[in-house]
Amino acid sequence: MKKLFVIPFLCVSLFLGSISAFAAEPVEVEGPVQQTVAAAGDGITRASWGYGTLTHANPVGRKPWAYATSSTYAGTCYTIKARTKVVSGGETDYTSWATKKDASSATSATIIARTESNVTFNGEHQFRDTSSSGWQYATTSASY
């Protein structure tokens, strides 16, 4: 009889112990991930083949980070490019261009700022619909 009472009691105490330990963890360590979006254009016409998105965050206790994605509204582009620039600590750093042919999107590598404050990220986005068309551009930005 004692064994039947002890086993369920141990199981319940282990279960409740794991719940209280989980609840003690910080709820939001990373901070909110945000996105900035801009439509592409060639500076003259209103038509746009795509848009650029800068995904960025300012994690608590760590350095801010970001990456850029260039995307078409529909279909593919002959060439689509994305890269991320960061200005922090008096320095400017870039990711390499992420370049794709006949694709609907391109995503740059993630870049991390040198400092935790006074940081500006820029997403640079380029689109070329066909081999004979001109380029369209978009720039996205975020600051911490």
Describe the structure.
With 144 residues, the protein is α+β, with helices and mostly antiparallel strands. The chain has one domain: Sandwich (Immunoglobulin-like). The chain has 1 helix and 10 strands; from the N terminus they run αββββββββββ. The strands form 2 sheets. Strands 1, 2, 3, 7 and 8 form a 5-stranded antiparallel beta sheet that branches. Strands 4, 5, 6, 9 and 10 form a 5-stranded antiparallel beta sheet that branches. The longest helix is centred in the N-terminal third of the chain and has 22 residues, at 2-23. Residues 1-29 have low confidence and may be disordered.
Provide the fold topology.
Layout: H1 2-23, E1 34-39, E2 50-57, E3 65-72, E4 77-88, E5 91-94, E6 98-103, E7 105-107, E8 111-112, E9 120-128, E10 135-143
Antiparallel strand pairs: 1-2, 2-3, 3-7, 3-8, 4-5, 4-6, 4-9, 9-10
